[in-house]
Amino acid sequence: MRRTLLAVLLAAAAIVAAPANGTAQPSSPDREPGNGPERNEVATLDNAFQAQLALAQGENQADRHQGYPRRTKLRTYPENTADKSIKLGLAPYHSLAPKLNALQQKSNRISVEVVGQSGLGRDLYLVTLTAPESATQTRIQEQFRATIEEGRNVPAGLYKAPIWINNNIHGDEWEGTDGALRVIEHLATSNDAETRNLLQRSRVYFNLTANPDGRVAGTRVNSAGFDLNRDFVTSSQPENRAMQDMVERTQPLMMLDEHGYVTNTLIEPTTPPHGQNYDFDLYIKHGYAGGLLMEKAVQALGHPETAKPEIPFRDYPVGEWDGWAPIYTAQYSMYHGAVSYTIEIPQQVNRQAYETLPATELQRRSKINTDVVEATIKTTLDYVDDNRRSLIANQTEMFRRGAAGEKQRYIPDGFVPGFGPEDRFSTEFPRAYVITAERSAPAAARLVDQLVRHDVRVERAEKPFTLGGKRYPAGSYVVDMHQPKRGLANVMLEQGSDISAKAPVMYDISGWSHRLLWGASVDIFKSGQFRFDGKPVVAAAPTGDVDAAPGADLALALTDQKDVSAVNDLLSRGLGLRRQDDGTIVVPASERAAAKEVADRYGVRFTTAKPGGQALQRKVIAAAVSADELQVLRESGFDVRTISTAVLNAGFDWSRIDALYVGAGLSYAQLNAAAKTGLDEFLKRGGVVTRGATGSRFNTEAKLLQATPTAGWEDANGVVNVVNGTGPIGANALPHSFVYAPQWFTNLGTGVTVEQRYGSTVIASGHWHARDNGTGGQDAAAGQAAVVSGTAANGAKVVLFGTEPMFRNHPKGLYAQVARAIFWTSTR
Length: 828
Known about the structure:
With 828 residues, this protein is α/β, with parallel strands linked by helices.
């Protein structure tokens, strides 16, 4: 019998593996922390980073085809009585490994794998529930998964439906983990026929806690201060890289991301605007139907607090809970073929509630929340089991359309109840993108590696080729948009849209573009046939080079963060570098060996230097910054000392500081007399770089540059068109920048240079309209100074940014502009 079944499975695998023809609170949620003025008000200090390990481990299984169960003896952690979950009657992090170890000993249906570590080194657990499989059976399932990704049909009755449940991505939204534990134990130990049959037909994957550091500390963010539910297409955090690996590896038919807290419970699908790169017709029918069933299950719990769940698509105004940005878990997962949901459980137990409510009330609320999590998970498992053939066909069709290069489908009004013109968003996929090293070789390599990491297919040309009338050299990279995950490729590479007129509000950012903001040269080939000799890319080719005759001084232009890292590496060795007026860094010929070493390490390219330049030493920065800015500055190799108003008032040694960066948490007016005196003395010799409202206010109060700041609409955000000047900061900058709560500068004093202006058309992609009183809109910003530089009366060199060049570690092509500002302001 076993041999017969195995033969059937192997035969089925051989069939589906055959190559295909063709070419390859009532009731709208409040805006969350980090989406408003507190970005400028709260400084990030070193004590939040002292134990950060910055581990970037992904899938740790040597053989993803090994069978199930995959038993892992998990390391255990000492009891931590300070774990914030204990007060709520929930599972502290240190209890998870013993619980999972015990279940693995008890049941052959549960497997636990460590798929990475958090920023502070805590293990991240992928828990899989499925009926036991031999290695051969697992290999066949993997072949089925890969065949579906190619857009080809598999025997639906033989494919085990994958479901992914993500929990606790916001550390102070605890109960997803606890509801998942209930379901895990039930699936692992229950002997009823329904459970056994479900696991014969399914694999259920749980990311038990996506943010263990935040769970323990009771913070929304991870240990580095990042909101992990904003980082998916940037992948700056180790926890996000682990989740990204999970969703790509498991390719779920359906997924849940368990959050809190919205009164009554919130269940996606979202309001418009919907992401324009989705095959939305393949999402919304199952998305809405599954949401309605989860609503019934939550109501059936019988708690008065869960009597009226909210489905934004049905219940909210446009934009209040939109599905536009690919930065969230659920929206990102859709590009990997999942019908996905964000679930917001109802009873608040974090922040002020955690501090003020009695423990008994918090535990009562947490019990209700855990019930809701359990209900949504179980309903999802049932929905997938009941609709598995349709869901498999749905996912296959999404990938088939991408591989075939078909247009998105027109979705008629009433496709599901309530679907109308406001829900209809689409794009035209180009035929291909071409990525070259024309502007920056390390930027091109980074972009290619990012695409490949996200399962976007890239090829490297082995010979020169012509496309759209342009000749490209061998080594250029081509993203053929006839590929299964074309939606993910396009959402990262396209410009995006100005959706200001399509929604009165947006929940979070509305514009991003790796093509425009990551510093690589990327061309678009819109349509037509093309041929080139290329090979699939696993990783970008090395880019480092020293292209100068022996005995010549070496030049490095600061066009990318990798260039900055290379310079700071050389400076940290005590080498005598020079900085020229255009920002180029010169390495003496005698240090050619060191230049070759950093060229190989960072992928940068040295050319022959021109004579001249001022001596450049390693810079130490005092930084009042947000978490994302701090990470970028340190990744760039700067020596950073974090400060705030409180730190300066407590006494601060300025003697070793070369530059001051002000972006958050520093008020000149609130400094005590001694702190002002120390700062004023520094300003006579040191440089200043500021960003945002806090930086502009600091400039005004410290009486540095004569430049009047004007604030744009506070929620305005996105990719903006800019016109660069010829000064030390604007020269050779990208023609695009990023804004969030933008500013511009007027009434400029004598000697103040405009480094960058907003374009005549401001928004390239994003959301920016005027306030109700008509102020702060795009029209008012058009042509205005976005970045200025100058020398203050006290001698301080100053640069003011009205843009957001380091926002959430995303606009990587802008980081070199910040570095040029630091080097310019701190060089005398």
